[in-house]
Every structure is written in C-alpha cells, then in structure tokens.
Description:
There is one protein chain. The chain has 537 residues and is α/β, with parallel strands linked by helices. Helices cover 40% and strands 17% of the residues. Strand 5 (189-196) and strand 6 form a beta hairpin. The chain is globular and about 75 Å long.
Amino acid sequence: MKALTIKHIVLVIALQVYSGIANGQESLSTAQWQEDLRFLQKTVHSDFPFLFKKVKKEAWDAEVEKLSAQIPDLEEHEIKIGLTRMVSLFEYGHTQIPFSTVSEKGVLPINLYHFKDGIYVEGTLKEHNAILGAKLLKVGEFDVAKALEMVRPVVPVENESYFKAYGLRFLTVPTVLHAQGVIPDYSQKITLTFEKEGKPMEYTLAAIPVDDLSKGYGFTIPNSDWASVREAGSTPLYLKQLNETYFYFEYLPESKTLYARQSSVFDHEKEKIKDFYKRLFEFIDNNEIDRLIYDVRLNGGGNNYNNKQFIQGIMARPEINAQGKFIYIIGRRTFSACQNLTNEIENYTNAVMIGEPTAENKNFYGDNKKVTLPNSKIDAYLSFAWWQDKPQWENADATVPHFPKELTFEEYRTNQDPVVDFAMSNDFEGYLVNPMDHFRQLFMAGKMEQLKTDATRILKDPLYAHIPFKREFKQTGENLLSQGVYDGALFLYGMFTENYPEDPEMWEGLGKALKALGKNTEADAAFAKAAALSAKN
Length: 537
C-alpha cells in the first residue's frame, strides 16, 4: 500500500470537514448556540414586540433564560427543538420555525389522522401494512394523549383545531420525541402501541427522510410505495381531483345542489382563481340552483385579496345568499387567507356554517418575515401583520360552525362524508343558526316568557349541544349586574338556576340580583344554596 504524504493527509482531512459542513454536521459551540438564542430574543424585543399578546414578555424571557442555561447539557437536536419552542410560545400559526427544520433527521413512515373516534394510521409505507388502519394507543411508554401534551409546546398552536390538523405530525419525529421526554434516549427507531381488530400490538418503525412522505392536505396520496386506508373505488366530493386542482365544482341534479370546493386562495397553474369564480357564477346564473355548498375545510390560505370577487358574487345573488340556500363548510385546515374569507362570509352573507372550527383566530398575526440566526442559520418566521376583520369584542380563538360535524374513522375509510350528507339532508331555512342572538332579541323586546320557553327547548336539543350556553349565560348575567339592570338579571338568573340547578355561580348571581333589589331574605337563601353546592363540588 502506498504511504500517504502530508499533502494527502491534509486533503483527506479537508474533504472530511467539507463533507461534514455539506451535510449540516458542523457542530456549534455552546457560546454560538447561546448567541443565536440571544439574537432571537433581541430581534423579537426590538422588531416584533407586538407578538407579546398571548404570552407576556416576562414569561417568554424566563423561558429564554431557562433554555440558555440548559444549552451546555443538550444535544444539537434538543437545542433546535428548544429554539422552536421559543417561537411557538407566541401561539400564532404563521410564527414558527418550520417543521422541515425539526424533522430534518427524519420522520416515521406513517400518516396519522385525528378522527372523531381517535387517532388512526391513515396511511403508511406498504411494507408496514400490518398497522394500516390501526388506532394509536401509545408512543413509547406514554399513552397518546400524554404524548401529544408533551410535544405540544413545540407546535405553533394557534388553537385546538390547528393542533388537531398540524400537531400530530410532531408525534412522528424522533428528535421531537426525545427532546420533549417522550422517549428517554434518542433513536431513529420508535416503538408504538396500536389497536387493530380489537387487539393491541407493539410495532417499531424506523425514520425516513421527510421528503419521502406522500401526502397532501393531511391525507395520504397512494402510490407504488404508499398505501391509504381509504377504500378504492368511489371518491367523496371533497377529495375529488384534490391533487390536480385547487378548484372543483359538481352539479347534483336530483337535489339541484351545486357543490364547490376551494382548497387554496392562490391561483393554480391550471386556472386562476378569478377565472374559477367567473366559471362558478356563470354556472349558477345559467342553471336552476336550490342550494350552494361551498367547501373550504381543506383551504390553508393564500392571497386574501383574491377573496373580494367571491364575496361580491355571493352578495349580488340574493337567491343564493339566503339562509338554507348557502352552506359553507369549514374545518381544521381552514387557515390564514381562508380565515379572512370565512370572516367576510360571516360578516356579509347569510351562510349556514357546518363542519369543524377553523385553525386560525378570527383576528390574527400573519404575513411573516424570515429571521436567520447568525450561527446555526436556522430560519425563524415571525409575523408582523395584524389582520382584524372583526371588532375586538367579536374576536375568538376560531370560527365555530353553526352545526358541527366531524369524520369518524369508518366514515373516512368507506368514503362517506357526514358533513356534506348533513348539508344535503337538512332544510336550514327554519333553523335557528344563532340561538344566543335569538335570546338577546327576545330579551330586548321584553318577550320574557317566550325567551324562557325557547331557551328551555333549545338547551335540550342535541343539535345545539356544541354551543357553550352556560358560559354565554354567565357572561350575560355578569354584564347586566355590572350595568345595574337588576330586574333583567333577576329574571335571567332565575331561568339559569332552573336549567343549571347544580351550578353555584348561577345561584351566586341570583343572590346578587335579589340583594340589589332589596330582597335580602331570598338573597341569603340563594347565597346559602351557592355555598352548599360549592362545598359539595
């Protein structure tokens, strides 16, 4: 064997160093990582202080100090996950370190989906067919609910729907699982516990590159390597041509229903969004349409300036813009510019909304700027634009549908769509889509007995079980007391205690109203009832 010269040795070392840099393996010192963290902290405070809306700056700074102190004892991937947690603390979906950064070492070869009845393997590599359609029970030694709780701080969680749509994928990232304590030692192989056909089973999966996943809009795209649990054959409307175009509509002549799906607010290479709107409204104008079902449950946003033409088109057609005629489907992936569209639908149309809550706050920070950390070159995306389509007192974590509907695993597997089925099988013209507004109108009109009758009936109707009536009633009662409207408060709290006889806060409110009106004996009895219930609970 020919001896290596000094020149050869230097060249070999140089190539090894270059290879390490090219593969992202150049290690940073503790000081460099801490410098990146301080750079992020300084940038946030100087350029993005308005992001301290859901988290106080003192609490955020305390987490920065905690991470800085931990860095000397952390592995590189743990530091990256720590930085991701810092950005996710702001709880705006647009403000994030991208998933591609935390998953750069690989992901498990499965696609999980959170159905109404649990978390299932919706798709996987065909070699793992044994777990296709299995229900996830545990990740490592933790049950799935606890594992989700542990990875949640890494996710830029805007609301519960956002976490449901985008949080599950973090359960498939070994670096995240280790950094968050779900697995004790870092490994590219993770053991999960499933249930299939009523039997529990453990199964170990090895990570693959994130780019090897085959999915779109949260669902698996079957190919020669990947299998979906969904039966072949029929395709539900919301999945038709899903990966071919953003825009699709189909006429259902038997019911004179026009179903339309818009899965982006960007132009598609095959069709501009304005041309789709033009084609859609021309069809509506030239055909007998009794009902328009407009589906944006998979729409993750785009350019909200593209929304105007659709809103104008709906408002210009009163025969469609009527309760029961215009059905608008929202869901856990309705986000960003599509949240703006949803706000405008709520503001300017008479649409009945069904589906799941949106993934975005009604008013939110979007439109982010890239901030590159100086040493690691990690990109953090920090939002700067405040989108306020609603008055601040109407802001909420999400747009909640008038009537919630969610897929079960079996419905998805067999190509059913309970959301569209519900829209097709109900005549919404006679429905109360906003019971609380109805109650307010009756109260303002002094129709107290009708208010009491309608409230008792509606509170027992399972169709409205999703509405947080108790919370709304408590807030209304507190408002009336603070405004000195004691007679009105007395009537409402009397109604509230009849419907929620075990709630101490309702009896406490009743006591306050009675006392304000000088009915001290009755007030004392109400306060005593409240105290007894509090002690009991």
